[in-house]
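A quick aside before the break. I want you to see a complete sequence-to-structure record at least once, exactly as it would be stored in a machine-readable document. Don't worry about memorizing anything.
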Amino acid sequence: TRSFHVTGVQTCALPIYMERASHLYRIAQEALHNVVKHSGATQVRVRLAREGNEGRLEIADNGKGLEKGSTPGLGLGVMEHRARVIGGHLTVNSRRGRGVTIACRWSESG
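That is the input. The structure line, written in tokens, reads:
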């Protein structure tokens, strides 16, 4: 059994078109699934923000991180594809014992 606690919820005026919103939702869903299934994390942060003319979705956990030299799974490949479809790019940063951060960035003008 997992329990969740939500803090710091804020709203912002970030215009997102339906197709883009659908892909971002699925990226976040897959990232959160991976956190629950693989990470052993006790905390996860989801952030959707606008930075200048760029949108950013970030999912960060404090879990065990990715195994060094591990092969990316199907889910990560699908997240990368979804990022490309909306004109963005996906980055994955992992620090052993300190968790994983997945970020999708896209241009609001594109």
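Two observations worth writing down. The first helix runs from residue 18 to 39. The chain has a mean pLDDT of 87. We'll return to this after the break.
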